[in-house]
Amino acid sequence: MTVRLRPPRSMTIGALLVAVGLVGACGSSADTSAQVESSAADDQASAAPDDQAVDPEVYRPQADADQYYFQSTSGDVYCGISSVGGAGCQTTGAPLPDGAAPQLADCWFAPGGPSSGARVFGGSAALMCFNQGVFIGPPPPAGNAPVGAAPDAGGWEILPAGSALVIDTYTCEADTAAITCRQGANGFTLGPDIAEIF
Fold this sequence. Notes:
Layout: H1 16-23, H2 29-32, E1 35-36, E2 68-71, E3 78-82, E4 86-91, H3 102-108, E5 115-121, E6 124-130, E7 164-167, E8 170-174, E9 179-183, E10 186-191, E11 194-197
Antiparallel strand pairs: 1-6, 2-3, 3-4, 4-5, 5-6, 7-8, 8-9, 9-10, 10-11
C-alpha cells in the first residue's frame, strides 16, 4: 500500500525552518538524524553538465517565490529546494541505513505514520522523519502528473530521469530509482529502495 502525504495548501519550504523543528516528533533532531559535516570548501554545488540541467522556472510554482518543487517519474519521491531551507526529499518505505539512530526506525516504519526523508543544508546532510508534507509541492499542472496519480496529489512537476535541477548551491539529480541532492561534496540519495547520506 502506498501512502501519499499532502501538505496543507499553505505549507511551503519557506516554513521548513519552523517545520523541521516540529517534525522531529520521534525525538530531538539531534537524536533522529545521522549527520555529515562538510568543510567550507565544500559549500559550492557540483554543477550539472549542460545536457542534464533543466530550466528551474518549470519547477517554481510561484514566480515570485524562492521555492522549487519536483517529484520522481514514479511519483513516490517528493522534493523541494529553497535557499533558506536547503534541498530535501521525502518518501514512504525507504530502508533505514545501517548505523542510523534507533529512533528513526520507530518513526520511519510506523504504519500509516510519518514519511522518511533527507535534507542537505549548510554543508550537512541528515536523515529525517516528516509528519507532514514539507517537501511536497502543489498539484502539478493538468496533464503533468505521474501515471496513476490522483488528480489533486501534490508534487508539482516531474524531474525526468537523467536530468538535474540546480538552484543556488544545490544540485538534485534524478535517476529511475531515486533522487540525489547535494551541496558541495555532501548530500543524500533517497528512493523507495534506498536512503543514504554522504
